[in-house]
Design brief:
By secondary structure, the protein is of the alpha/beta class. 26% of the residues lie in helices and 27% in strands. It has a single domain, classed as Alpha-Beta Complex (YbaK protein).
Length: 156
């Protein structure tokens, strides 16, 4: 189970016990925001994408969506989302529980600047009913992020 993998991964920072597991789904931004009683924008959604022949994860604020022009300007190619099967194979997390933690070697993580509006955000932890509250510094460190990018636009 992917959540067990994430718990093991977060032990190195002593944060495995801080994972919030709920009885209800957190698989969508709306469901996670309702379950956690926070604004949807504070849900850090992880999007799995194909970049050439490799997979990447871009973490963005819950009220944002990928902007194709910004993405192409930054990464040099059009954004192409992975299918649910490709996502599971590449990240070891199923859609709804994809997170930037404990990913297989070679899957790079990027954080969108849309998250920087908040003191803390809530990314998933490998299952469709889990989350953890993290500061931006913690998110950057624990995800072993390649850095901050500006590839999103607000959802209207």
């Amino acid at each position: 189970m992917a959540i067990e993998q994430v718990k093991e991964y977060l032990k190195r920072w002593n944060r495995d016990k801080d994972i919030i597991e709920m009885e209800v789904s957190t698989a969508t931004v709306a469901a996670a925001a309702a379950a956690l009683a926070v604004a949807p924008a504070r849900i850090a959604k992880s999007i799995s994408l194909k970049l050439g022949d490799k997979a990447i994860v871009v973490v963005i604020a819950g009220d944002m969506k990928l902007d194709n022009r910004k993405y192409k300007d930054h990464f040099g190619m059009k954004a192409k989302m992975l299918s649910p099967e490709e996502t599971l194979n590449a990240t070891s997390h199923a859609v709804g529980g994809v997170c930037p933690f404990g990913l297989p070697q070679g899957v790079d993580v990027f954080l969108d600047i849309s998250l920087q509006r908040f003191d803390t955000v809530f990314p998933a932890c490998g299952s469709g009913n889990s989350a953890i509250e993290l500061t931006m510094d913690e998110l950057h460190e624990y995800s072993q992020s390649e850095g901050w990018v500006d590839v999103c636009t607000p959802v209207l």
